[in-house]
Amino acid sequence: MNICVFCSAAPLDDRYTAPASEFARLLGEGGHTLVWGGSNAGLMGELADGVKAAGGRLVGISVEFLKHKAYEGADELVTTADLAERKALLLSRADAVVVLVGGLGTLDEVTEVLELKKHALHDKPVVVLDTEGFYAGLRTQMERMDAEGFLPRPLAELIGFADTPAQVFERLKA
Ligand SMILES: CC(C)=CCNc1ncnc2c1ncn2[C@@H]1O[C@H](COP(=O)(O)O)[C@@H](O)[C@H]1O
């Protein structure tokens, strides 16, 4: 399976990096391909290192203004002209999307994927690894949208939440 992962480009505390490394190991050992932003920065770099060490394939989709931070050692590295093109390519190369802890870049990416799914422009599974309850606030906000009629289809069809890396793969049936 080609699994697109959105996650932080920042160097993070062990309580965030350890579950991400476990996720990377399961992805690689499962014979999957990581499709990601192609950077060596922070958690993105650690994720790629973990997948590679576990024998997984790496497909990086970088962007012109960040290509100086591109990960060396990807099996395939594509550089897009801008962020919009990168987001489109990340999704088109994926069978499923997984969201690890992240900041505004991650939020931008997952929001776009969910908006496209809302409009039935794709139907790929989207699963959040909710490490340390990091996404509790976002989840509460989305549940309120769901409960109060802001979403045209049930939230549970758009996105799933997992507490552990193993649960992510159970949800993806991968
Ligand atoms: C120090 C430096 C120049 C880092 C390079 N920074 C980046 N390199 C590659 N992808 C990025 C970068 N910043 C944001 N992104 C994209 O946005 C997400 C990370 O943004 P954030 O840290 O969550 O907000 C990633 O999924 C990635 O696809």
Automatic annotation (TrEMBL):
It is an enzyme of class 3 (hydrolase). It holds the Pfam family Lysine_decarbox. Its EC number is 3.2.2.n1. It catalyses: 9-ribosyl-trans-zeatin 5'-phosphate + H2O = trans-zeatin + D-ribose 5-phosphate; N(6)-(dimethylallyl)adenosine 5'-phosphate + H2O = N(6)-dimethylallyladenine + D-ribose 5-phosphate. The lineage of its organism: Bacteria, Bacillati, Actinomycetota, Actinomycetes, Kitasatosporales. SUPFAM superfamilies: MCP/YpsA-like. The keyword Hydrolase applies. This is Cytokinin riboside 5'-monophosphate phosphoribohydrolase. Belongs to the LOG family. InterPro entries: LOG (IPR005269), LOG_fam (IPR031100). It comes from Kitasatospora putterlickiae. It comes from the Bacteria. Gene3D superfamilies: 3.40.50.450. Keywords: Cytokinin biosynthesis, Hydrolase.
